[in-house]
## 1
Amino acid sequence: MNFDEKKFSAYLANKDFITEFLYFDEIDSTNTYLMNQREIKDRILVLAEFQRRGKGRLNRKWLANAYDNLTFSIGLKPNLLPVELPYLNFYASLSVAYAVEELTQTSVETKWPNDLLLGGKKFCGILIESQFEENRISRSVIGIGINVNQTLFQDEFKNRTTSLKLHFGTIFDRELLLAKVIGKFALNYWKMKESINSIISEWKRRCRTLGEKISLTNGKEIHTGIFEDVTKQGLLVLTQNGEKIFLNSGDVTVIKE
């Protein structure tokens, strides 16, 4: 069933936050669409039922069934410095987590750098792309994919991927969920910089791998050690052979003793 914009608008508490809503039945990618526009409105929301070239982290494809999920992007002109860009990832992750928790009364976990988990399985991913001018962020696009009512996944993903319907055994109202996510995002967006320490603390409290022995794979590089911390800049702090190293990307796997 197609996404119902009127229903979404009726659910939306912070109606003034979104300045424009664009809906596509099919598109290459909501992120690509916004990044390719010469100019965008601040706080524009673009949602597509199906993305032909949906993007995940590290140039991976984001695969999602049409009409079952939420694949959308929020275009922003944030008052942030380039070094503050990771703030958006922490903030967006918690906005989705809070929305799902409000609807389900179940805790959501974070996974570095940009995933959300239920029962140890991924149900949401976030990809942020930005443009810069004169040492400022002129445009940021936050792409969010949430597995909502999809129940079948490709074999390579099915053992580590879930959806809200699979986890909770019930169909979810996509319009209500998106309204909750946008509402949580809008709530303290203007105070994000001032609240970043508490935002990061809350993100870390939910991170199931923090403090664990992990391996981090980035291309051909593999690092092994204790996952000690995450910095304000979104770097993973790994203690390896008594030395702290700082990593900005990769796939984390817990090493079970």
Note: The chain has a mean pLDDT of 93.
## 2
Amino acid sequence: MNELIIRKATIDDAEGKGYVHYKSWVETYSTLFSHEIMEKITLERSITLAKEHPENTYIAIINNKIVGFACCLESRDKDLSNTGEIVAIYILNDYKNMGIGKTLMKVCYKELSIYSSIILWVLESNKKAIRFYEYEGFRKDGHSKIIYSKNAVRMIKSTIK
């Protein structure tokens, strides 16, 4: 693998990050969500979101191309205190199984190390992602919610101090 660079995203990264967001959704969720949901996911919308929200995002770059990203922040769940949240982690299919996801997770762990635990939400039907998160030390905590008509489960991990 060529050199992997991980750095904080800036507004100038919006097109590359937006492309990864859009393409990853198509690659990962086209079999998990209905056509009606998937047609609302557009490249233009993903780029706009990246422009509006560059904060809390780390991008993965290989050969000057953004191939993945992760977003993390303080948990948005009202029932938790002193908890960080990994909001998104996406990697283009062509770059999966190269350690990029694990590297992005480590950056999030460092960023969220001020919290006593870290959570994330994952579709219950996304078994591959659940296995990855379990390997990373996350465990389902029994909470769930509906995202775009599909059940998502919350997973939690204690931070390593």
Note: The chain has a mean pLDDT of 93.
